[in-house]
Amino acid sequence: MTDTQELVEQAKNGDQSAFTALLKPHLKIGYNVCYRITGSQHDAEDALAEAMGLAFRGMAKFRGDAKFETWFYRIAANASKELMRRKKEAVYIQDDEGGEIQLADPSVPDAFSAVEGMGDVTTALNSLSADAREAFVLASVVGMKIAEIASHQGSSVSATKVRLHRARRTLKDMMNTDGTLKVQF
């Protein structure tokens, strides 16, 4: 039994220190997954915290069909998507004339909290559909195989290949070689 397998078994039995040791090497990439999906540092931190809690509570259900890190990255991606879904519920207030004013547009990414130099990339990523952005992040950041992404998204391998190809082509068409946007929004 490898060290990872031993840590998994201990964590499945509720050992918090084993879970922490298992999770720690994967937090940076987990954060990157969350950030690429949410487009916001604050939201990424919230999604990552949620993913960590979900992973700990769900550890007993971990079957080992995939590597632990793949399982955790899927949880992080799902937590990020769920956070974005919840944020789409806009907040309205009544104005003096009885009309409604939207306080915030939650579909607009928080580009100001982007890591220095990453704003254009984040803007380009956020222009993709949620499924295309997720497929791109899981393939490019996490390194998941297309079959794993397809399974995760509940789609066929061929549909996932097309989604990933279109996402890459769209990003390539939007970006200059120096990583800046060709057209500013």
TrEMBL record:
Q: Name its GO BP terms in alphabetical order.
A: DNA-templated transcription initiation
Q: Please list every transmembrane segment annotated in the UniProt record, as residue ranges.
A: none
Alphabetized, the UniProt keywords read: DNA-binding, Sigma factor, Transcription, Transcription regulation
Keyword Lipid metabolism on this protein? no
Q: What InterPro entries does this protein's entry cite?
A: RNA_pol_sigma-70-like, RNA_pol_sigma-70_dom, RNA_pol_sigma70_r2, RNA_pol_sigma70_r4_t2, RNA_pol_sigma_r2, RNA_pol_sigma_r3/r4-like, WH-like_DNA-bd_sf
Q: Which residues form the RNA polymerase sigma factor 70 region 4 type domain?
A: 121-171
Respond yes or no to whether keyword ATP-binding is given for this record: no
Domain of life where this protein originates: Bacteria
GO molecular function of the protein, one example? Answer: DNA binding
Q: Which residues form the RNA polymerase sigma-70 region domain?
A: 26-88
Describe the family membership recorded for this protein in Swiss-Prot or TrEMBL: Belongs to the sigma-70 factor family. ECF subfamily.
Q: What is this protein called?
A: RNA polymerase sigma factor
